[in-house]
Amino acid sequence: MDGLETQWYENGKLKNQTTWKNDERDGLELAWYENGRKCLEITWKNGKENGLETHWYENGQKWLERTWRGGKLDGGMKMDKSG
């Protein structure tokens, strides 16, 4: 698979967008809650996590941020469990 894959909720709102290259995730992946708020943002390179990964609670508050290099965690992680 090559190109942008897009998934939708039954209500017509955007659910997920993933970029593929040679059947591997490669590029930005975004996901949203059904209420339209962003849920996830992560970058992939050759099928491996690469760069900043961010997650949000459904209320829009950021709850997790971590960095990847070649599919391995690179450094620490920031979390906020209070969301």
TrEMBL record:
<dbReference type="Pfam" id="PF07661">
    <property type="entry name" value="MORN_2"/>
</dbReference>
<protein>
    <recommendedName>
        <fullName>Toxin-antitoxin system YwqK family antitoxin</fullName>
    </recommendedName>
</protein>
<dbReference type="InterPro" id="IPR011652">
    <property type="entry name" value="MORN_2"/>
</dbReference>
